[in-house]
Amino acid sequence: MAKMWAGLTNGTTDKLADDFNSSIRVDSRMYKQDIKGSMAHAAMLGATGIISQSEADTLISGLESILADIESGTLKISQDAEDIHMFVEEVLTTRLGDVGKKLHTARSRNDQVALDFRLYLRDEIDVLSEKITNLICAILEKAEEYKLAIMPGYTHLQRAQPIVFSHQLLAYIMMLLRDKDRLCDTKKRLNISPIGSCALAGTTYPTDRKFEAENLGFDDICQNSIDGVSDRDFALELVSNLSILMMHLSRFSEEIILWSSWEFKFIELSNSFTTGSSIMPQKKNPDMAELVRGKTGRVYGDLMALLTTLKGIPLAYNKDMQEDKEGVFDAVDTAKACIDIFTGMISTMTANTENMKKAAQKGFINATDLADYLVLKGLPFRSAYKISGQIVSFCIKEGFVLETLPIEKYKEYSELFDETVYNAVDLKVCVEKRISEGGTGYKSVENQIEFVKSKLNI
Q1: 3-class DSSP state of 351
Q2: Is residue 270 annotated as part of the catalytic site, yes or no?
Q3: What pLDDT shows up at residue 16?
Q4: Per the residue annotation, which of 272, 277, 383, 393 is the catalytic one?
Q5: Strand pairing partners for 152?
Q6: Three-point CA angle 105, 231, 234, nearest 5°
Q7: CA distance 130 to 372
Q8: Is 436 one of the catalytic residues?
Q9: Is pLDDT above 90 for 56?
Q10: What is the C-alpha to C-alpha distance for residues 88 and 62, in angstroms, rounded to an integer?
Q11: How does 377-406 read in b/e, with b if 16+ C-beta sit within 10 Å?
Q12: Residue 65 Cα distances to 32, 36, 68, 75, 448, angstroms
């Protein structure tokens, strides 16, 4: 099949070379953005008088019919086409004849593909932002439901201090809010139009780049035509943002996997988001969380692949840049799927608050509060710390927790102890006393919930 770029050569290439060169299997998903971009380009050509207004109207009408036919299934995108841009132009030329051939005036595939890519990713950022919001809302619902549920907070995966479950959940919400903000920031830098840069040097035609940019909802135009066709920072930034998002989901997955194990049993995942074993009937596997954790590496790989592809390319456009889309599309698809599955998994999750509280008690995570009790009675902190450690050691050996140790035993370690010690080491009181902003105290957690709602306007 002769190519639309035939001229210097007859456009005939080896079938093996055709298949190797073709990107239609990857970029066909951008058909809508390609057609809308071409419609804006035709409108600009007509408005500037580069072609007649009637020709521009004919082109726009022809492009509208192609879009409608693709979306209705009447027109199938041919996998034999070189790319989505050539496919659309070939169909348009077949339908309109010589008028169709005028569409590519004052345009190159270099700036056309850069335009389509930006338009497509702009749409995907909106979808991703909405999905992240849905996930945040699902986690927030659980944070409100378990606002009073006491659990151990951990450092080094060792029980450290008492917190409420909602405080732990809100930590992930804060991460996701930043992920959402990063996507919004990326969209600002992405929303610059490259169309009109042409191959690299601009064009001799009296084009109106700003007319075309405004028609497509861009905030501005690329100020340098070489940069316009060469820039893929926006794609790198997006995949970098998605890598950070996936890292957050992976950390959350790790905790869900731990919490749902028999060793913790802090949460119960719905049967709808777990699987069983082929030979062990007692098993309930957190496969969805494990898959999210695994797919994080896949998105990291997409980022490294794109960075490596771009690192040695001289200006301006090179065919290497055809490799920019597959990894980015994969990262976007993977992140969207992971966010959706996470939202469902969290929405149907329940917490075993009694197990959480027992773990908090047995972990002696109120030992710091015991030491503080003695400090308030006038004992130097280091002395209070040593006595508290000795009491914890005794409790571990004899099967007590601080809340059940007899007062007589407390007094053996210090006469400063009296009945008020039980209030001091009560886990609920320990949580309530943490009054600093952002802490685990009940009022602080309520303020954090209200902060999230204000950020999401809910």
Answers
A1: strand
A2: no
A3: 85
A4: 277
A5: 162
A6: 115
A7: 45
A8: no
A9: yes
A10: 10
A11: eebeeeebbebbeebbeebeeeebbbeebe
A12: 12, 12, 5, 10, 51
